[in-house]
Fold this sequence. Notes:
- With 123 residues, the chain is mainly alpha-helical.
- It has one domain (12-121).
- It has four helices and no strands.
- It has helices spanning 10-38, 61-85, 89-108, 115-122.
- α1 (10-38) packs antiparallel against α2 (61-85), α1 (10-38) crosses α3 (89-108) and α2 packs across α3.
Amino acid sequence: xxxxxxxxxxxxxxxxxxxxxxxxxxxxxxxxxxxxxxxxxxxxxxxxxxxxxxxxxxxxxxxxxxxxxxxxxxxxxxxxxxxxxxxxxxxxxxxxxxxxxxxxxxxxxxxxxxxxxxxxxxx
Length: 123
């Protein structure tokens, strides 16, 4: 008996991907705001999710806010994506990450080559 797989229509996949991307950036900005309050950073940069040029240092509070926000966003979104898509969570998570890299490159007008930024995405 052949193994049968269920394939979702393209419209459903694109709709779910759009929901996941919107959810990702909503969670990112919410976590970023909370991290700013907890670490007493009073200036919230609107482009913070796309910032890969901040100097990586544990003494730099802005860097800590960006790092913690990225890590918590991926953790929370991984759990929330299960509620949205139920199956293929890794596929959607990787697709959202690729879109995030593309959007980051577009917003910052250069491709992120800094190792600390890629390490934060990969953890």
